[in-house]
Amino acid sequence: MSNFILTLKLNTQPFEESILNKRLNIGRQMYNACLNELNKRYRALQQSKEYKKACKMTKSKERNKLFNSLNKKYGLTEYSLHDFVKQMQHHFKKNIDSFTAQKIATRCFKAFQKLMFYEANKVHFKKYGEMNSLEGKSNKTGIRFTNNKLIWNGLAVPVVIKRNDIYAQTALENNKVKYCRIVRKLVRGKYKFYVQLVMEGMPPTKYNKETGEVRNPVNEGRVGLDIGTQTIAIASNKEVKLLELAPSTNNMEREKRILQRKLDRQRRANNPNKYNEDGTIKEGNRDKWIFSNRYIKASNALAEIQRKIASKRKQDHEKLANYILSLGNDIKVETMSFQGLQARAKETTINEKTGNYNKKKRLGKSIANKAPSMLLTILDNKLKFQDTKLKKVDTYSVKASQYNHVTNEYNKKELGQRWNDFGDFKIQRDLYSAFLIMNVNEDLKTINRELCFRKFGNFKELHDLEINRIKSSDNELISSMGI
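and the corresponding structure tokens:
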């Protein structure tokens, strides 16, 4: 069954905001207590002889069964954590119901599982003010939505539904609420509260109010995507595009960097005892950090800019995903590990020309600013509502950046080589990769060469139009485009 989320603003009074803030803080304390208990149980597990023996075994079903039995023995399961949080919930029952307490425990356990499966190095405790959401398990007890109100342990907060918000009205009329989530956001220096309704079924279709036509229709056809850290190349039978990801955030990123430098200067000026002479932070210094009023004001301004950037970035990705779906619903993209690209290099290398050490920084900043993985997630979610999914092409088998369909050869290229030479003309590298990905077979491992020959003429025309559009644009171009 498909689900979608409807977010609505809560019309809170000051006393209701005070109660919600208190409950979020109680939820934070319960989360930290669960995490502390899991750390204790995990250390006891690691010190056991059975665990050390299991670690030495080769990967097999027997080894997995042994790990599962040890997890149950030492209480490293979701339901054992539910039993642990039950005692705390009785103490806070006037504020936190049993279902919400169980969801807090589940949230903590899922975060801790990443540590157990070596997907994370550490699970952090939540500081004061960091717990910004709580959710229930159903819409029958605990946190629930009834008669356009959020009902929870004595609170009955009305929800804001605008008269002209046809989408929200249609969603509430035609869909059932599975469970609710309370979310707190810092907007312009003040906390605002929202309720997220997780709805069963399909989201309502949006229509143009003036013409009555369907907004953002999904069309049929093949589409190939070659996504990078800052750009995306799109190839289809209708259009060929080379676009920058989340262009609306560029101006705000500069303002964000200026504020970050200002905060760093203020931190150093207020806490000279916390830094060494070379500017690094003193290890083992337990002195309390001093934050001035101007520092707090600048910190709030930075938080507001980061909120705006996140909102604009998501909006840009939603628009781009709708545009891609208008070109076709058979969408293919290469598999890519953005997590690996943003990690710092492990080995220390020396530049042969200068003799200096190469920086270990990689593409973390670009990925954080543009969030390419978020675009693919949004696109995949939209495709699921069309009973299909985003198709991930096997990068190592296809080798789209190396293949030439004319010669049927694979040739490695330097990263700075942004054009493919076909003799009489040249094709932009990313756009050509997107074209090849568009023509990958259903096995997602081989390129359909005959289809490439049939479609190449149309692609060449659309490619030239796109290159001319980019060259005539007044916008600052990204160097990886090669234009």
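(Above: one complete record from the training split.) The chain has two domains: 3-200, 222-481.
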